[in-house]
Amino acid sequence: MYLMKDITRDGDPVLRARAKKVQFPLSEADKQLAHDLMEYLVVSQDEEENKKYHLRPGVGLAAPQVGVSECMAAVLVPGPDDSILLKEVLINPVVISNSVQDAALSEGEGCLSVDQDVEGYVVRHDRITVRYQNLAGETKKIRLKNYPAIVCQHEIDHLNGILFYDHINKKTPFKMDPEGILID
Ligand SMILES: O=CN(O)C[C@@H](CC1CCCC1)C(=O)N1NCCC[C@H]1C(=O)Nc1ccccn1
Ligand code: NI
């Protein structure tokens, strides 16, 4: 199971590299990687467990964040009460279409791989269609909006060597165009 010491931090070149496409059939190593990425999210979101292992709770984790430069990311987005909005391992994910409308988390973003806080709106698409392969190798297409869409864009960015603060406007960090949506 990954601990915080296993999370690659900003400055490590693997976070700025373009990750390699995952080949099917999945190797045993890739199956284990998918399991471990999702396991981190599940354990980190459990109050007792995350205290026991000192994990920062996460809703997404991309392979480069554990030092593996491959196109794979796990997402576990909780909904209201104990519901789950999205739980998936995205393999070779690509945003194939997006809304013109922008969105940003009103609180800004963080990253398990970036220890310092970087203030400002991380301007993203409000709605996206993502094509990816699941663990079984089936090609899937999902349409996402608001928070789940933000999370998936953050993870797909990691596979392209992009970090959230790359999207923050240095001069006007809290500027959002009038049509843009702020997500709480
Ligand atoms: O690439 C992946 N990462 O870097 C983990 C990030 C991914 C999210 C950041 C913004 C959109 C996706 C992550 O999850 N966080 N960022 C740093 C600390 C907080 C934590 C977080 O938002 N936790 C959370 C939120 C709601 C419910 C439970 N936990
Ligand atoms: Ni991140």
TrEMBL record:
The keyword Iron applies. It comes from the Bacteria. Its cofactor is Fe(2+). GO terms for molecular function: peptide deformylase activity. CDD domains: Pep_deformylase. This is Peptide deformylase. SUPFAM superfamilies: Peptide deformylase. It is an enzyme of class 3 (hydrolase). Belongs to the polypeptide deformylase family. HAMAP family: Pep_deformylase. It catalyses: N-terminal N-formyl-L-methionyl-[peptide] + H2O = N-terminal L-methionyl-[peptide] + formate. Fe cation binds at C111, H154, H158. Keywords: Hydrolase, Iron, Metal-binding, Protein biosynthesis. The active site is at E155. It comes from Lacticaseibacillus jixianensis. Binds 1 Fe(2+) ion.
